[in-house]
Amino acid sequence: MLYVVIAFLFLGILLYFLLGGADFGAGIIELFTHRRNIRKTRTTMYHAIGPIWEANHMWLIIAIVILFVGFPKIYATMSVYLHIPLVLLLIGIIARGTAFVFRHYDAVVDEMQVVYNNIFVYSSFLTPLFLGIIAGSAVSGHIDVQADNFLDAYVFSWLHWFSVAVGFFTVALCGFLAAIYLIGEAEEQDRRRFVEKALILNIVAVVCGALVFVAAQVEGVPLLEWLFGNAVSFTAIVLATLSLALLWFLLGRGQGKVLRVLAGFQVTMILLAIGWAHFPDFILLRGGDHLSLLETQAPAATITALGWALVLGSVFILPALFYLFYSFQTKPIHDYEV
């Protein structure tokens, strides 16, 4: 049952990145959209993510609950030593969701709409930035549980070149995913604009990915060894590269569903390549220590109860979630005009 819980943990992280990340990416796209196209962009975005933006955070909640219940030592370590970026992440999620609702459903349209817009787009950028910083910090080896001062324990555990580079890489990937997803939602005359944004954001993601490698070299993070030092990670990187080439080939044709599958597959392979290299270690600590999912689990009875709860819960939740996606995709796009 332990491996069932671990599978749900990684599934929750993956789906949050693919779905919640695309939500953040929609705000990132809006942040860099010209004023003459902003209305069309918001209309398309509301149609795509408006009904389900809150449901996407379910995956983050599931991952947090699994860590809290099933791996309390890992949860406690992250909560203590990464509490600053975690708090900023949560503030960004709350601010973004609040602004999204207020600017769309506020009964009075006045100058506060500008405030709501700014909160939405900038929190859409900063939230995945801190999400990536947290992920990078967990595997960077900078968390020092023996630190005897505030800066070393709670600031330099996450504020370093590698984690920041991973943060910007995460932002670029979120924007890229959103652009790909929105291609299938846009009307014919507006689709070309999202294709161009997808190409630009994909280039930005590649550049940010290169910066991650540079930062890893500077910080002494064995990223190259992780990605090319075992058959699974190497194969995943090759498949991600091939899917990228195919995606570029098909991008100009605007085939929304195929592009979504390719983009999701590419991101999945990237996460698999990185995660597989140091599995079952979830957090790599300074000095070579680590926190393993196979060594820090809760008592067997707790893991068994958690595993059954996840399995039975998915039986009820997943069909309802798929129906939610389906039901709102059948609504005409002008229902979300703003």
List the helices and strands and how they pair.
Blueprint: H1 2-31, H2 38-49, H3 53-56, H4 58-70, H5 72-81, H6 83-105, H7 112-140, H8 150-155, H9 161-183, H10 188-219, H11 223-228, H12 231-251, H13 256-278, E1 281-284, E2 290-292, H14 300-329
Antiparallel strand pairs: 1-2
Helix pairs in contact: 1-2, 1-4, 1-7, 1-9, 1-14, 4-5, 6-7, 7-9, 9-10, 9-13, 12-13
Provide structural commentary:
The chain has 338 residues and is an all-alpha fold. It has one domain (2-228, 283-336). The protein has helices spanning 2-31, 38-49, 53-56, 58-70, 72-81, 83-105, 112-140, 150-155, 161-183, 188-219, 223-228, 231-251, 256-278, 300-329; strands at residues 281-284, 290-292. Strands 1-2 form a two-stranded antiparallel sheet. A hairpin with a 5-residue loop joins strand 1 (281-284) and strand 2. It comes from Rufibacter hautae. Pfam families: Cyt_bd_oxida_II (PF02322). The chain crosses the membrane at residues 6-32, 53-74, 80-102, 114-138, 158-182, 194-216, 228-251, 258-279, 299-326.
